Amino acid sequence: MVVGEFTTEVDTVVIGAGPGGYVAAIRAAQLGQQVIVIEKEHVGGVCLNVGCIPSKALISASHRYQEAKDSEAFGIKAENVTLDFLKVQEWKNSVVSKLTGGVSSLLKAHKIEVVEGEALFVEPDVVRVNHGYESSRYKFKNCIIATGSSPIEIPGFKWSDRVLSSTGALNLKEAPKKLVVIGGGYIGVELSSAFAGFGTEVTILEGSPAILPAFEKKLVAVVKKSLKKKGATIYTEALAKGVEESASGVKVTAEVKGELQTFDADYVMVTVGRRPNTKDLGLDMAGVETTDRGLIKVDKQGKTNVGGIYAIGDIVAGPALAHKASYEGKVAAEAISGLPSEVDYQAIPAVVFSDPEIATVGLAEEEAKKQGYEVKTGQFPFAANGRALSLGATDGFLKIVTRADDGLILGAQIVGVNASDLIAEFALAIESGMTAEDIALTIHAHPTLGEMAMEPPMSYWENRFILQNK
Fold first, then answer.
1. Most distant CA atoms of the chain, gap in Å
2. Quick one: which of 285, 267, 369, 277 has its CA closest to 315?
3. What is the set of domains in the chain, with CATH numbers?
4. How many angstroms separate the CA atoms of 385 and 399, rounded?
5. Which stretches within 205-308 are classed as H helix?
């Protein structure tokens, strides 16, 4: 019903229609709430439109191009393989279109109204939505903020036609001959792998002593070797200082291990991180507390310090992962509905869609030791797996970390083909409190990559059996 002239009353307002917001909205609707979603750009958010999905589509196209050019070992030789990058972009955009259309259909099916515009809190229980010269107000019982994050623009590198964020790089109309990438985190490495696969001469400038600093060195070493094989050059302890732009390219200046160097390229892509989109929401008008970094403070149900207001995804503490946002969205929607849901981050997988992929879940070996565990580890190489050999994808390994006394699985790390899919078994194992013996006793299909999951646990189980029967 309408309260006053311009204010509409609603059960739940969700601000942002990304993987956190639309999942939260659907779950809230399933639980009987009247829901509206406010989105200022595109349904699906960054992930579906200019992030996870288009980047993976580009990466897949890059793999296809590589395979077409280099399959002689399989007895297949193709001549005059050409790259039509505009066609690649057309295909990538078709994937995005299908998924965003699917999300819009899901919202409609759950009778969720999508309101276009920018949301601004004007009271602790009222938001105003501005859309061009028009505005509307919504009074809510509960609100879930899911506004995501944006690429960080660093000093001296203002976004332009030649200075790109990941969004700009994903929408290029040509595969660059030369590309400088500032930032060797997961976004920088993923897109570097993709463009290097298309034949681009890639130079990565990473400020820390190693690319992918959040992952174990042995995992990263496999990816680093692959990047170099594709012709990429990696500089660590390299601080970008400035850029000169011309009509045809850029000249990037960086301090590499204390010495100034310049790098010529067609484009420079800046991927040094993302910042939470909380600045222009009017959070002060609602009284919502934030950290110095602009993150919203929440409890285990996503509740802020203001009753009825929740926050999820990139704007709260923790890794900026789409699946984390979706998970938190479900928890917040259920908490609003009175269910005893709360977050448990014990088994959140993290994936880098590099070539080969990296995937981890739970605790790494050193993390487990720091937490006081006595651990036992097992490792198995892709080169010893029949399916990996038949795919011609033998780089990498799988490692598990278990509690020494009983074999409880604490974590797993994988680098290799399809690591992003293989990690799910270990996420389930950790979530279910399974041991190495449980996985070793599970029959896995042969020949598959998945059967590698039982190899390190089998070694643990065999050793335990021997000790018990001495």
1. 83
2. 277
3. 2-150+275-346 (3.50.50.60), 163-272 (3.50.50.60), 356-468 (3.30.390.30)
4. 14
5. 217-229, 283-286
Q: Are 420 and 396 in contact (CB under 8 A)?
A: no
- Cα–Cα distance measured from residue 270 to residue 170, given in angstroms and rounded to the nearest whole number: 12
Question: In 3D, which of 271, 312, 307, 309 has the Cα closest to residue 295?
Answer: 312
Three-state DSSP state, 254: strand
**Catalytic-residue membership of 42:** no
Q: Is 158 exposed, middle or buried (0-12, 13-18, 19+ CB in 10 A)?
A: exposed
CA distance 148 to 43: 13
Q: Is the pTM of this model over 0.90?
A: yes
What pLDDT sits at residue 6? 75
The one-letter amino acid code at 51 reads G
Residue with token string 């996985």: 439
CA distances to 62, 86, 345 from 431, in Å = 34, 43, 10
Residue identified by tokens 């259920």 is 334
DSSP string, 153-189: PPTT----SSEE-HHHHHT-SS--SEEEEE--SHHHH
Contact of 46 with 149, CB cutoff 8 Å = yes
Q: Catalytic residue among 63, 110, 131, 446, which?
A: 446
Band of residue 459 on the pLDDT scale cut at 50, 70, 90: low
Please, what is the average pLDDT of the chain? Answer: 94
